Structures are given as C-alpha cells and as structure tokens.
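Exercise 7. Predict the joint structure of the components listed below.
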Amino acid sequence: MRIDFTEEQAMLLETAADFCRNHSPMDKVRSSLDAQQIDASTWQEMVELGWLGINVPAEYGGLDLGLHSVVPIVESMGRHLMGSPYTSTVITIETLVRSASAAQKTQWLPRLVAGSIATMALTEEDGNWRLDEVSATGEQQGEVLILSGQKCFVTDADCAALIVASIKVAGTPRLVLITADQIPEGALSRETVIDQTRRSFSLSLEGIEIPLDQLLPASDFTTIELASVLMLCAEISGGLTGVLHTIIEYLNMRKAFDRFIGSYQALKHPTVDILLGLEAAKSHLYHAATMLASDHQRDAEIALRIAKSQGSETFAFAGDRAIQFHGGFGFTFECDAQLYLRRALWCQYQFGDDAHHRQLLAPLLLDEY
Amino acid sequence: MADVTEKEMIEFRDEVSAWFKENAPRDPGFLLPETFMEVGTDQQFEFLRSWQQKVYEAGYLGMAWPDQYGGGGKPQVFQDIASQEMARQRVPFMPNTIGLNWAGPLILKMGREEDKQKYIKNILSAEDIWCQGFSEPDTGSDLGNSQCRAVRDADDYVINGSKIWTSLGTYAKYMILLARTSTEGPNKYAGLSYFLVPMHADGIDPKPIKKLTGEYGFCQTFFDHARIPADCLMGKEGEGWNIAMVTLTFERGATGGQAGGIASMELNVNDVVELARRAKRNGRPAIEDPHVRDQLVQFIMESRGNQLMGVRSQIPELATDWPTAIPMSGKLRGSELKRRMCQFALSLQGANASRFVSNEAIDGGRWQRSYFNAFSGTIGGGTSEVQHNILGERVLGLPKS
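Solution:
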C-alpha cells in the first residue's frame, strides 16, 4: 500500500492552494453561480502557470508529469468550490494522449496547452454510467460520418474549441473529435444542474457531419472513466476539507440554550465522523494517484473505484449534515452549506455513485485472487 | 554493531521461515485466545507458554536484547524479520506480552544491574509471567489519580488497595505496579511510585473476572496489607508517574526496544472474506449473496483506508489541516472496524450464527467469541464515545462537552 508524493506535486500543491484561495473567495463563487461565461482572466493565468500541459507529453509541448500530478491542483479547486473548465480540458487531454493518432495529437495537444478549452460528450439521456453503452451513432457515408443522438452533461461546451464525443460506428463504441465550427446553431443548450458552479450543456448530434479522419483510432473508455473519477475524487477531497471548516466555524460560533452548539455530542460526534471520512478519502485519493502513475492498471482501477465510492458517500453525508447543523439558517440559500451539498451531489452522481463502484469492485476484490 | 548485508537478511528470512513451518504447533483441538488479554484456561496458558519457550530456545525472541542477560545480542533487523515471519505464518502469539514488550524494555532501560540479571532471561523464556497494575476500579482512565497505597515500614512496603483489568493475573510471578506513597506534594502525580512486585507475597490476591464471553481473562487484584521488600521500588519514591509514562511509550509502540514476537493472532478482513466462501446462507455460499458482497467490499475499503491513513500520515504536506487526526484516531478506527466486522461475520452463518463456543459452531465459535471480545477494544483505553470527544475537542477545536 503505497502513496508517493513527488516534489512536483508538492510544488503544485503550494502554488494551487494560494491561487485558488485568492481567485475563488466565497463571494466570487456566489457571483459566478449559473455564470453565462467563464472567468477568462483566471483561465489565462492557469494557462500561464503551465497547468494545461501537466499531462501532455513533452513532444507536444507539455510538461509530461502525468495525470496524477494534476491532483493537488484539482483538490485545491475543490477546497474553494472553484468553477472552471480545467477538469473538462484535462480529461480530454488524457483521452487524446491515450486514444488519438499522432496527427490528431499534433493538431490538438499544443493548442490545448496554449489555452484552448476542450470537453467530453459521453453521458446520454438515460443517465447510464457505463461509458461504452452508447446510443448515439455515426453513419459512414463516403468520407464523412453523419452523427445522430443526444449527449448530456457536456461541461463548458459553449466555450470549447473541441468536443470528444462517444458514438457507435458500425455497432462499436468509438470516439470522435467535433470542433466548435462543426456544431450547428442551436445544437447546444444549457442544462439546469444541481451544482451551480458547473456550466453544463446538452449537445444534439443530429445531422453533424465530420470527416472520417476525426475518428480516434483507439477508444479507451476505461482511461476516460478513471481519469474522470480521479478528477472528481480530487474535488471531493478538497470539498470535504472546505465543508468541514464551514461546519466547525458555525459550531464554534452559534449558541443554543446558552452553550456553543459544538459542545453537544449529537453534533460533535458526527462532525468527527466526517473528519475520519475525509482522512480516508484523501488517503484513497493519493494512493489511487500513485497507482495510476505506476501504470498498474488493475490496482489503479481498484484504488480509484474505492476512492470514488468512499469519498462521494462521505462528501454527500458531510453536505447533508452541514445543512442540518446550521439549523434554520441552513435552510436558506444564503448559507454556504448548500453550495457544498450541491457540489457533493454532483460529484456523487457523475461517473458512478458509491453503490455502482462497489458493485464493480466486488468481482475485482472477491472473485480473483 | 556490524552492518547486516542484504544476503545475510535473505538467508536469515529463509531460515526463520523454514523453522516456523516445521515447528509451528498444529491445531491444539481447542480454541486458542487471540490476545494475551483473553487467556482464560490453564490449558490455553500452558500451550502458549511452552510455545513461547520453544521460540525463545530456537533463538527467535529477544534477539536484539543484550546477550549477558539472556538476549541474542544481534542487530534489531534479525528480530524484525523473525517477528514478520511469525505474523505472516500466523503462528500462535507470545503470551508474556507485558514482560516482553513493556516491563522487559523498561528494566533494560531504567532498571538496576541486579534487576536485569534477575528478570530478563525468565521474561524471554516465559518462566516468569508478568502482569500490570495500573488501572483501578474507581479511577477509570485517570491513571494519575491512582489510590492504591504503598507505605514504607522498615525494610518493607505495605500495600493496600486494588487494581483491575490485570491480564494473566493468576499466572503472573511479577507485577509492574503504580501505587501512591504520598498524598502530599504539589500535585497528584508527585506521590506516585513504581514497584516490581512479587505476586506470591502474602496479602496479594488476583481474583479472576468472568467476562461477557463466559470466559476468564482479567483479574481484579486485591492488596490486603501485602508486604514486599523495599528494594522492589523502581527508581525513587515519587518517580512513579514518569516511569509509568515511559512504560506507556513501550506499550503503545512509540519507542523501540521490545523483545519482538507477535502479541496477538487477530482476525482481519481477509478472514471474513474467507469465511464468506465457506459459510452458507440458505444453502448457497454466503459470498454469492449480493448484499454480503456489498458489505465485504465496504469492509475491505475501510480496512485499506486505515492502512493508507498510516502511510499518508508520514507525508506532512498531505496532512496540513488537522495533522493529528490520523495518529489520534487509530484506536477508534481500528477497534470499531473490528467490532463491526466480527458482528457481520455472524450474519454469514445462517441459523448457526446462534451457536456459541462449541464443536458444533462454525470455526468452533470463534466469531461469536471475537465479537464479544471486540468490545474490549471499543471500551478499554477510553471508550469510542470518549474518543469522539477527544478528537472533536483536541483535533477539531470544538468546545468541551
């Protein structure tokens, strides 16, 4: 059972902690809810810090540090409920690195390092978490593919230069590049989602025509799923830290029956349980990152599914208790607890909830030995 | 101390591994205890004592203790390898736990030359069993408030009072005792003194306590004008609290110097998974039941989480918000997991879960017994409820309850 924490990760953590604290104070989080646009100047600063090149190989202009090195950044963003197209772009980069052709990589990776935004279009209207069970299709006609179907939860799609979508071609699930100029007017529409720091869209693929060479030669859905899970786990670990600080502050300030409410064991003990859940979540997260870095695919899959299952359940519990412990104030929009609960529920129900991952873990942990 | 080469270590591991494979005792035909706190019958005790003696005589216990007192005089790494091998092969544990891990290293560190000559070898061979007299019936976890009295009378001390949770009390030849020699002084700690007490002295009476399992394993030890020689005092009068704190650093493993060997044969999550393969619910192996599978996965996750927390706590950059949370919660996390795991193990057994320690019970009833014994972890050393308070107040900074 290993956790490696590299010097690069330590440096990134230090920078990211300051950056996110300064760029995502709570009043800014609130004023950015349901934002029509992304915060372009913050994005530009992130690009200049080199954060978009972390998991890009050196030959395409990146730092070649691997996806696991992104974890401290995303964790810090989660800590401050920062909304940003960062994880959408990083996951898309990882997908291209694993599944794109050399020509496709040459065309896109340097642009993404330089700050173009990219995102994934995977989930469909039935909310199925199994990424290779795809209904959308691409029908070959000569040198083009005619797409049809509907994608959901395409985050930051309106500002993305590139969308990588999953479709079925001749019965096989594949990945395809769609550029911003190939998306017809009206194909994107904003979704109302539970986490208002997220900018989520549905994408109608009807009638989109793309050249055949925009198909990715490989379609590594496991990588996409695990990369997405890793990003969510990092957000969860940071978010748990944030919500626990919020709870503690209120428990030390609010009085009921002439005593600080934090002195009541009915509130104190579940708060300690949240702490222990957080300590476990953070440990699972960095172990999963370590396993991903060491390229033990099976160990990485186990570690990531555990991290997601344990972490998302704990975060949802923490958000739930944060509301309850704030009493009447917790019932209002003004109380920050709801921001964390909404974030927690997004994280829980994207890319598999706790029970889903346990179900997939069962054969990995119990049947093969 | 000479450096040990990689080759020497590998050769030694092979040697130890082979010895334990050859010599580990076969199933004795009765249920063995899982820790030294659970030794309840003469049969169990004699079995474990002769096992410890055999391991010591083979040279695999106290390997790093000085050879002039009966130790092996070798580098610590050899003992570590031997101990790891005992854990890996899951051989029975060394019953003289208090002697090997607490009293022994204490005497080596702070004792007089004649104490070392007198006690160390027999601790290793299990000839002399040791017990501990710290807790008292009325003072609970408040060790500094101990009331058991020791009064100097010519060349003796006369002891009155009682101590509780004395494991191996009826088998012990010696006790490490914390007693009050004075009620004066600036605070409650100043009047405490530390003794190495011969248990056979007149007026010392260890009375076994029957546990919820129906077995014995602890005693309450009564002192009624018990007279012991004055040279049983360790250090000086009034130094008892400091010596007790040194003892606790050995007890908690915060300081090295223990004789080695394993102190328990506890169940872990793999044992529960393995039980789920064998045990049947409604005619099918329990491990095929989706609910059972989900529960097993959760226990594995929790168990791995505890292991990984130990790893992460060594990386300061990853423990910045509440840096003491992991070390301070170890007992709470470990003991509660064990209790729930044993509780769950019963649910794998169908109607046979209703049996208790007997030949008809699955695995002789060890799961039922382990579940009951698991409460010693969630109650002893500060209950889980007290642990929650401590963590809330000292780690999170919440107001006192």
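Discussion. The CA atoms of residues 14 and 298 of chain B lie 36 Å apart.
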